Amino acid sequence: MSRTFDELVAEADSAPVDGWNFSWLDGRATEQRPSWGYQRLMSDRLANVSAALDIQTGGGEVLAGAAKFPPTMAATEAWPPNAALATQRLHPRGVVVVTPPDESVLPFADEAFDLVTSRHPNTVCWNEIARVLRPGGTYLAQHIGPATVAELVEFFRASQGPQPEAWARRHPDAERAQARAAGLEVVTMRLERLRQEYFDIGAVVYFLRKVIWAVPDFTVRRHRSRLRELHERIQSDGPFVAHATRVLVEARKPVH
C-alpha cells in the first residue's frame, strides 16, 4: 500500500540534513553523474602535491574518499554542524578542519598551497583562491552550473518566473572571466547537463531542505499546497524530471 502525502512529507521533513551525504534518497531519486569522475580526479591530484586545501568541504564526505593526502592537508567549512562532521571524519586522517566566520576570506597565508579543491561551493572567491595558491598551483573543482534543477525551482517559484540573473552567475563564461580577473589561467571549464528523477514527494522535500539555495524560502508549511500538487502529479504521471548542471573547473596560477 502506497504511503500518503502527509506520511511522505512528515518523514522527509523530520530527516536530518547535516553533512553532504544523499544516501537518504537511495531508491527515491536518481541523478546522473558527470562523465569526468571528480572524486577520482581530486584523489589523483592530492596524491602528487605537498600542501592542499579543500574549500567548503561540507561534512568531509567527498574529501574523505581520497586515497592519500599530502603532508599538509586542510579543509574549510563555515556551517558548524557540517564542520563538526568533517572534523570527526577527517581529523583521524590528519586533516585540519577550519571554520572561518566568513566564506569570502580564507584564513591562510599567501602562497600556502599547491592545490585548492572544492565540490559544489556555494560561493567562489577567486581572489582568495589565487592568493593562497603557490605559483604553478592549481584550483580543481566541480561547480554547480547555470539553471541547475530549473524545473524544480520554477515549480516552487512559479510567480517569480525564471531566474536569469542567478543562473548567469553560474555560467562558465562568467566564471572564466572571474578567474582570469583574479590572475588565474583557465585550463578547463566543461559543462554537462544531467538528468534527475524524483519518485515521491518526500524526495523533493528532502532535497529542498538540504540544498537550501535552490528555493531559499522553502519550508513544508509555506509550500504545502504546491507540494500536494506535485505529489498528485507524480502519482498520476510518474517521476518528476529535472536537470542538474555541473561544471568541471581547472585553473592555474601562473609562474612569474
TrEMBL record:
Residues annotated as domain Methyltransferase type: 53-140
InterPro entries: 23S_rRNA_MeTrnsfrase_RlmA, Methyltransf_11, SAM-dependent_MTases_sf
Family annotation (Pfam families): Methyltransf_11
GO molecular function, one term: S-adenosylmethionine-dependent methyltransferase activity
Protein name as it appears in the record: Methyltransferase type 11 domain-containing protein
Organism: Mycobacterium bourgelatii
Upper taxonomic lineage: Bacteria, Bacillati, Actinomycetota, Actinomycetes, Mycobacteriales
